[in-house]
Amino acid sequence: xxxxxxxxxxxxxxxxxxxxxxxxxxxxxxxxxxxxxxxxxxxxxxxxxxxxxxxxxxxxxxxxxxxxxxxxxxxxxxxxxxxxxxxxxxxxxxxxxxxxxxxxxxxxxxxxxxxxxxxxxxxxxxxxxxxxxxxxxxxxxxxxxxxxxxxxxxxxxxxxxxxxxxxxxxxxxxxxxxxxxxxxxxxxxxxxxxxxxxxxxxxxxxxxx
Length: 209
Ligand code: SAH
Prior knowledge:
alpha/beta
């Protein structure tokens, strides 16, 4: 999977490749999908949601330019798979999931695998996790209409945020924002992606399920 789907498509960061090699994706997918755990596609995890495609996780993690010790916020825990990858790259990871059942099972799997630097909360991640802010990096694993102001507020100077921005149905644009030491934000467009919608106060109002 690593050689074909990640390196073959431009993932270069050695630390990201190493983290991807060490996280057992099959543990995060439902029993019925285990055979497909190392194919490069999203898979259903219940509640109409999907575990992210490995390439997407690697690409976003690389774009976050994580250093050991970084404090990371993830919005959209899902299965917990991408949080585990982030947990290998950063210091502490705070991840928020709006579906209680997904938050519960992700927490259990992460604990079982020993990711005790990854903290899962059930709630609306479009508002971030203010009690643990500021963060050096923020990864939004669901597509929203715009970058939530609350997330910008919770980013450290020098920090990076990666998020799909666009309509709830169809494709979005993956954007990276950096907060300069002066506090200003700059934006880069990384490419076209397709994510499930960010549903919440600073996301879309209606679940599209
Ligand atoms: N990164 C996950 C997959 C994420 S799918 C993995 O590797 O498995 C996107 C997730 O975002 C879904 O589980 C969805 O329920 C969640 N989500 C959508 N809007 C959210 C919000 N406002 N706050 C927290 N989670 C949200």
